[in-house]
Amino acid sequence: MDIIDLRSDTVSWPTPEMREAMANAVVGDDVYGEDPTVNELQAAAAAMLGKEAALFVTSGTMGNLTAVMTHCQRGDEIILGREAHIFLYEAGGSAALAGVQASTIPVEADGTLNLESIRKAIRPGGNPHFPHTRLVCLENTQGSRAGMPISAEYTAQVGELAHEHGLKLHIDGARIFNAATALGVDVKALVAPADSISFCLSKGLCAPAGSLLVGSREFIDRAVYTRKILGGGMRQVGVLAAAGLVALRKMTKRLGEDHANACRLAEGLATIPHIEIDPTAVHTNMILFSINDDTPIAPDELVQRLREDHNIVIGGYSNGRDKIRFVTHYWITPERVDTVLEAMRELLA
Prior knowledge:
Layout: E1 4-5, H1 16-23, H2 36-49, E2 53-57, H3 60-71, E3 77-81, H4 85-88, H5 93-96, E4 101-105, H6 115-121, E5 133-139, H7 152-164, E6 168-172, H8 176-183, H9 187-191, E7 196-200, E8 211-215, H10 217-229, H11 238-249, H12 255-269, E9 275-276, E10 286-291, H13 299-310, E11 312-313, E12 324-327, H14 334-348
Helix pairs in contact: 1-11, 2-11, 3-10, 12-14, 13-14
């Protein structure tokens, strides 16, 4: 707990309340549908998102892949952003396991996909040379745009466009509750047009593992079969679902604190020499910034010195990008923000 870890909100460990709930969880065999804590979690998630049913899965990657495989057949095509998590960071599962082809389009500065670009990417029917377009995927918040929240109005437009062409809409809502918090709306409004939504319990919500896939009863009934194919049939998993219930009921209501700490951190970074950052671009719990060329310390050395000298862990540059990412979460308090700023100032001033 002495380490200040800003690499991601996935590094957040369970709260004491979660650990107690896990220790006391009532469990059963979830493959038989007999784990009461899992069933309670799934019902709570469906109700919170305004859908009929939900399915507990091991991870956000499994949730997204389960959705793609349930909506699509082999040889079908999905439309999604060129910088979507599903496309970049999920090991090509849609192609490797689902046999589904990706049609990627640019992600706009505000995290959206241009509506006309989506429309043009939809394959015309009746031509045997083309794959069948089946699914449009959005990401909310948009990770490649520093956790940009996507509005309900825009999502409704995409849903209308998709359904007009007989397509389904899936939302990779790994941080959908961050989006709802930032926009000041009920999460139901953000996902109302979607045929399926996945969201993570193990990021800013602090649960140790697990995600939920949410949709209609008919969709979830089919998704149970898909999850089984992927090896996701778990047994007495109520020990994890118990933490998920705390995440839903408690942690979703405090995400504004993480956003405030991210703003505090961004504003402080803007006062430090050699850091290039736009604090107004911080909308949720992610910060992207760069270090200019005349810095007294190279980025790799900065990462090393922060860890060795200050017990602060950051990710540094990754994937050939020119940005460093900080992500706030439950365990990044205002006091720890100030500690990070002091260390950064010492190393870069």
